[in-house]
Amino acid sequence: MSKRELVHYKGHEFLKQRLVLSLLSQRAVRIDGIRTDDTDPGLLDYEIALLRLLEKATNGTRIVISPTGTSVVLRPGMITGGNISMDCPVSRSVGYYLEALVALAPFGKETMVATLRGITMDNTDLSVDTIRTATLVNYRNFGLDDGVELRITRRGAPPRGGGEVRFVCPPVRALRPLRFVDAGHIRRIRGISYATRVSPQTANRMVETARGELNRFIPDIYIYTDVYRGAEAGLSPGFGISLVAESTTGALMTAELCAGPGDAPEDIGRNAAQMLLAEIMRGGCFDSSHQWLALTLMILGPEHAAKTRFGKLTPRAIQLLRDIRDFFNTTFTIKPDPASSTVLLTCLGTGYINVGKKTT
After folding, report:
1. Which residues fall within 8 angstroms of residue 358, CB to CB, at 6 or more apart?
2. 0.90 cut: is pTM over it?
3. Residue 24 dihedral angles phi and psi, to the nearest 5°
């Protein structure tokens, strides 16, 4: 397959990861048949906003959208980074856009400083708390821990949002190969219980019920309360909790839950704790919310064998493996481990070098 040959897909599913892979592999992508059977066909507002964000983060990227919005072609340019600012549609949280930047930022020409405004937590995408306490911490497995920061300036609950975050990530020349197969044992649990424009006791009530579920399994638990008032609280009332379990080898398991209309704080705390226990039971060195990050960075590593352990593969990870094959012409070796109900994944890195970053 020619390196410049157009990669073609049909349908709106997995649109974000395909656009990101296009930019990383420098191969153009065409996606047709986007919601052609829906009453409102074509790209939605948050997908158009994502395309604009990718255009801001790169130089020379050409994006062509059909008049009906049911087809898009992206011809990738160079990832530049730099200062980026965007007001995100409230139909998706800023976590949707941050995931794309997390995958692209290390390979920019200069340090990326992105300011995104909108909803900071929902139950569809990763919250800014999980990205700060787990996603960016997982960077360290690839040698990407210096100078990375995510600051929550304002929180914004659905439906009106009003939150703001600032993401900073310096570029790297090359990644470190991943050899992470020992998941270890859970040694501590940390978390953040947050509340905006509601009673401060709401956050404490979530902490109490979450601890009640988790204390039966491990004593080292600390859940911070983060209560926002005034302008920092955004435009809508809301509350939720984000939990992270860390193992003896540094594996992170996460769970989070954001309250909907009529939800009690006790139910949110209890359900989030049970979700975390279910995630721990699945095992692996990366939880189900971060399998995409490990797979993407493994393929971009040096030309050495990279190896890790997952629990049950998510549908998103399975499709990502197929998309990586399409863009990079590289496949993973997957070996089940019946003893631990996990799978071992091995691949040979593509030897990706960030030619935009100056050597020092």
Report:
1. none
2. yes
3. -75, -35
The identity of residue 265, as a single letter, is P
Nearest-angstrom CA–CA distance, 301 and 2? 22
pLDDT tens string 142-197: 999 889 999 999 999 999 999 999 999 999 999 999 999 999 999 999 999 999 99
- Residue 358 CA to chain centroid, in angstroms? 27
Per-residue confidence at 360, pLDDT binned at 50, 70, 90? low
- Which two structure tokens, joined as six digits, stand for 294? 């490990």
**Which residues is 228 bridged to in the sheet?**
196
Alpha-carbon gap, residue 12 to 36, rounded angstroms = 10
Q: What is the pLDDT of residue 163?
A: 96
How far is residue 253's CA from residue 189's CA, in Å, rounded to a whole number? 9
CA distances to 37, 44, 189, 203, 354 from 70, in Å: 10, 10, 44, 43, 33
With 50 as the cut, is the pLDDT of residue 1 above it? no
Q: What is the pLDDT of residues 241-300, one digit of tens each?
A: 999 999 999 999 999 999 999 999 999 999 999 999 999 999 999 999 999 999 999 999
Residue 359 pLDDT class (50, 70, 90 cuts): low
**CA 153/CA 161 separation, integer angstroms:** 13
